[in-house]
Amino acid sequence: MTAPVARVLGLVAAAGALGVALPAGASPDIDFGFGSRAQALGGAGVAIADDASAVFHNPSGLVRAEHVSLTFGYSSTSYSLETSGNPTALPSVQTIDAGLVVPGAIFTVPVAFGLALALPDGRLSRLREPQPTEPYWALDDATPRLVDVGSTFAVRPLPWLLLGGGIGFQASLRGTFRVEGTAVVADGSGSEYQSTLRHAVDADLTASRFPLLGATFVPSKELTVGVSYRGASLVEHRIQGALVGALEVPDTSLPVRYDFQTKADVAYTPAQVALGASLLPLPTLLVTAELDWQRYSAYRSPYPQTSTRTALPPESGISVPDTVAVPPPPANFSDRFVPHVGVEPHLGLTSRIDVALRAGYSFQASPVPRTQPSTRLLAVDRHVVSLGAGGVWRRPLRPFEEIHLDVTFADALGVPQTLTTTAGPDADHLSGHVLLFGATLGVAFEGE
C-alpha cells in the first residue's frame, strides 16, 4: 500500500480509537463514595445522607431535609499506582459538583426532590479503548472520569418509613469520521503534499439510564436503617469511519473507499445493593456502618471490536481482504462485598455552631482474576482510610438558615499483588495507592 494511502488510513483508524464521554453528576466514585461527609465516614452514606449526596447514596434520605438547600463541592483524586515498578500514567481528576434539594408536602405527606451534577475536570472526559497486551487499570482508568446526572424524588408516607427513587444518566458518544478527496503517491519530490483531503466528524451523545431506589426505616431516634439499589451503567463507544476519494498514480486515477467500525464498552459501573445503619449510642456520637454488594461479574470487556472494508476497482488488480469483528476476550470479573464503617463525634461550640470530627474505613477486594491468559486488566485489594471534619453555622444571616462546610482526606492503600496476564506468568507486580481531598459547602435557606 502506498505511503499517502497508508498515512490517511492510519489517520482514520486512529480516529476510530478515540472517544469521549460527557461528565456530570455527583460522580459515582467506587473508592470513596459521594459528598465530603460520607467520604470522611469511609463511604458509609446509605443510612445518613440527607442532602444532595442522597441522590446516589439513598434517594429516600432527601425527605429528611427541612429546608431548600444548595451544595457545591470540589475534590481532587490523584493516582500513585505502579505496574512492575513502572508508574501508571493516570492523570489526576479534579471534580466540581453541585446539588439541589427541594422539600415540600403533598397534602400533609412530606416529599422532596433532589438533583445532583458533577463535572470531572470541567470538560469532556478522557476515555480510551485499551488493547489486551497493555496494562489497564480497569477500575481507575474510566469510572472517575464519567459524567453522572441524578434526579430523584422522595416521600415519607409514615413517620418511620421513607421511600425514594429516580433515574441516573451517563453519557457516551456515537459518531462518524469521514475523509474525502485525492491522495497523491509520493515520488521523492514531495508530490504527496499535493493531496487534497477533507475530513469531518459527526457525533451524537447518547445516555445510559439506570434506576436509583432507596428506603429508610427510623424505628427510633437513635437508630436509622437504610437500603438502596443503583442499577448498572455502561458507557459504550461506537465510531464509524470512511475514506472516500481517489488515489493518483502516474497516468491513472483509482477510486478508493475504506470503511471501518469500532465498538467498545469503555466504562462500566456495577449494579449495587447497599444495606446500612446508623446509631447514636450517645447524643454527641454517631456510628455508621454499611455493606455493599457490587455485581462486577456482568462487566464484559473494555477491548474494542473493529471491522474494516477496503473497496478498489477490479481493474486495479488489488484486493484487500475485509476484517471481521472478533469478540474480545471476556473480563471474567467476580462480584464483591464492600464493608464500610465510620464514626462522627460532635463538639457543640455554641448554641449556633456545631463541629464534627470524622473517621472511616472500608475494604475493597479486587474483582479481577489473578490469572488472565488473554487479558491484562489490573486492580489490587484496597484498604481505604479516611479522615474529615465538618461544621454547621445556624442562622448566620438572612436568607440562610444554615451554612455547612465539610472537608475530607482519604487514602486507598493498595495491597501489593502479582497477576499472571498476557505479559507472562507472575509478570505484573501491582502496588500503589489513590489519594482524595474534597470539600463541600452547603447552604440551607429560610422557609416561609
Folded structure, characterized:
With 448 residues, the protein is mainly β. Helix content is 6%, strand content 58%. It contains 4 helices and 23 strands. The protein has helices spanning 3-16, 36-40, 54-57, 138-141; strands spanning 20-21, 69-83, 86-87, 93-106, 109-120, 125-126, 136-137, 148-158, 161-184, 196-217, 223-230, 233-249, 252-269, 272-282, 285-294, 305-311, 336-348, 353-364, 377-378, 382-394, 400-414, 417-421, 424-445. The strands form 3 sheets. Strands 2-4-5-8-9-10-11-14-15-17-18-20-21-23 form a 14-stranded antiparallel barrel. The protein has a two-stranded antiparallel sheet with strand order 1-6. The chain has a two-stranded parallel sheet with strand order 7-19. The longest helix has 14 residues, at 3-16. The chain is elongated and about 90 Å long.
Topology:
Elements: H1 3-16, E1 20-21, H2 36-40, H3 54-57, E2 69-83, E3 86-87, E4 93-106, E5 109-120, E6 125-126, E7 136-137, H4 138-141, E8 148-158, E9 161-184, E10 196-217, E11 223-230, E12 233-249, E13 252-269, E14 272-282, E15 285-294, E16 305-311, E17 336-348, E18 353-364, E19 377-378, E20 382-394, E21 400-414, E22 417-421, E23 424-445
Parallel strand pairs: 7-19, 9-12
Antiparallel strand pairs: 1-6, 2-3, 2-4, 2-23, 4-5, 5-8, 8-9, 9-10, 10-11, 11-14, 12-13, 13-16, 14-15, 15-17, 17-18, 18-20, 20-21, 21-23, 22-23
Radius of gyration: 26 Å
Strand runs, count:
23
Largest sheet: 14 strands, antiparallel, barrel
User: How much of the polypeptide forms β-strand, as a percent range?
Assistant: over 45%
Task: Return the average pLDDT rounded to an integer.
Answer: 83
Q: What structural class do the secondary elements suggest?
A: mainly beta
Overall spatial form? elongated
Specify the number of helices: 4
SSE succession: HEHHEEEEEEHEEEEEEEEEEEEEEEE
Poorly predicted runs of 5 or more residues: 1-28
Task: Give the N-terminus to C-terminus distance in angstroms.
Answer: 75 Å
Give the % helix.
under 10%
State the strand order across the main sheet. 2-4-5-8-9-10-11-14-15-17-18-20-21-23
